[in-house]
Specification:
44% helix, five-stranded mixed β-sheet, 6 helices, Collagenase (Catalytic Domain), alpha/beta, globular
Length: 178
C-alpha cells in the first residue's frame, strides 16, 4: 500500500502545521479508514498538551513483528519484536532545500502481533492500545524518554493526560483489590 498523507493544518487551522504519512504494510492492521482518523486524533491531542515545533512531518508505519524485530535488532541491538519504535530525526542545525528549518520529526513504527497480543492480555480495546503507543512514540519524537525514573514519571503523566483528552483510560492505573 502506498503511504497516505494527513495534513493536520487543514483539519484544524488552530493547530501547528503537521503532516503525517501513514504506511500500512501488514494486512492484519485495521484499514486506513480506521487508522487515519485515529492517528490524526492522537497527534492533535498530543500537540494540544505539549510544546511542539510549529511545523513538522512524521511518518507512522504499521508493520508486523518480523519487520519490527529486524529494526529493533538493527537499531537497538535487541533481537526481538517490540510494540513501538520511534526514530527521531536530529534536525539540529540542518536546513531544508529552501534554506529553512528541516521539518522532519521522525518515524513511529508499530508491530501488529505484539500490539494485538498486549491489548488482548490487558483486556483493552485494540484501538485504545494503538492510540497509547502512538502517543508514546510521538512523545519520544518530541524528546521525551523514560530512561530515568523521574523522566519516566513525567512521560507517563503526559501520556495519561493526552489519553484522557482522547477519552482513553489511564493505561498505568493499577487495579485495586477489594
Amino acid at each position: 500500500m502506498s503511504p497516505k498523507r494527513i495534513d493536520l493544518e487543514y483539519i484544524d487551522t488552530e493547530l501547528p502545521a503537521y503532516e503525517i504519512d501513514i504506511l500500512i504494510e501488514d494486512e492484519n492492521w485495521p484499514c486506513l479508514d480506521v487508522l487515519e482518523p485515529l492517528a490524526a486524533r492522537v497527534v492533535k491531542a498530543s500537540i494540544l498538551n505539549i510544546q511542539v515545533r510549529p511545523f513538522a512531518e512524521l511518518s507512522i508505519a504499521f508493520f508486523n513483528d518480523a519487520k519490527v524485530q529486524v529494526l529493533n535488532r538493527t537499531y537497538r541491538a535487541k533481537d526481538k519484536p517490540t510494540n513501538v519504535l520511534s526514530f527521531a530525526i536530529d534536525n539540529a542545525g540542518t536546513t531544508d532545500n529552501a534554506g529553512g528549518f528541516s521539518p522532519l520529526l521522525g518515524d513511529i513504527v508499530l508491530a501488529y502481533e505484539t500490539v494485538f497480543r498486549e491489548a488482548h492480555e490487558k483486556q483493552i480495546k485494540f484501538e485504545d492500545h494503538i492510540a497509547h503507543l502512538l502517543v508514546h512514540g510521538f512523545l519520544h519524537l518530541q524528546g521525551y524518554d523514560h530512561e530515568e525514573a523521574s523522566d519516566a514519571d513525567a512521560m507517563e503523566a503526559l501520556e495519561v493526560l493526552i489519553l484522557a483528552d482522547l477519552g482513553i483510560a489511564d493505561p498505568y492505573a493499577k487495579d485495586e483489590l477489594l
